[in-house]
Amino acid sequence: MKQASFRSAQWIRTLVVTLALALVALAAPTLGRQDIPELPKPDGSGDTPEISISLVDNSTLKLSSLRGKVVLLDFFWSQCMHCQQHTPHIVELYNQFSKRGLNIVGLADPRDTKETAQAYMKQMKIAYPVGLTNLEVIAYYIDSHDHSVPQMVLFGADGKMVRRWIGWGENSKKELSDVLEEQLKKAEAKSSTKPN
Hints:
Number of strands: 7
Radius of gyration: 17 Å
Largest sheet: 5 strands, mixed
CATH superfamily: Glutaredoxin
Strand order of the largest sheet: 5-4-3-6-7
Number of helices: 5
CATH architecture: 3-Layer(aba) Sandwich
Distance between the termini: 67 Å
C-alpha cells in the first residue's frame, strides 16, 4: 500500500513539474541558444529581475550578488545518469579554479527535494553552494527550446552569458576548462587595471 501511495505521489509530482515547465516555456521570455541572458544588476536596473535562490543549507542567494564574478550555473537532477557523469568533472574544475575567482552554483531540478540535493552533494563531494531551481531561474536561464539536464550557463565578470552547454560529452570538460581559463584571465586583467 505504501509503495502504491509513493508511486502515486511521485507521478503527481512529475505531472506538476512537467506542466510548470510547459507554462514557463510558453510564458517566459523567449530565450534560446543565441540569446544572451544576464545576471541581475545589484542596483535593479537592466532586463533581468533580482532572483533569489533557496540554498539547501537554508540560506538564500541573490543572483545579483554574483555579478562582477565569473559564474557557472550548473543545472542537474540527482537521478540523471548524465548529471552523475558530469558532476565529478564540475567539482574538479571548481577545485582547480575557485581560488582564481570561479563561482559555481548548483541548481537542483524541481524533481529534487532539499534532502535528495543534500544527498547528491555528499555523494559527489560538492563544496560549492547548491540551491533548488525555481520557475524564475528556469525562465531566465534554461534554454527555452531544451530543458534537459545537465545544462550549464557561464557568465563573465560583466554579468553576461558567455556560453551555454546542454548535455555532457567527451570534449565537454576540455571546452569548459578552456572557456573558464579565458574568462578568469579577462577578470584578472580587468581587476589588475582598476585603480586602488
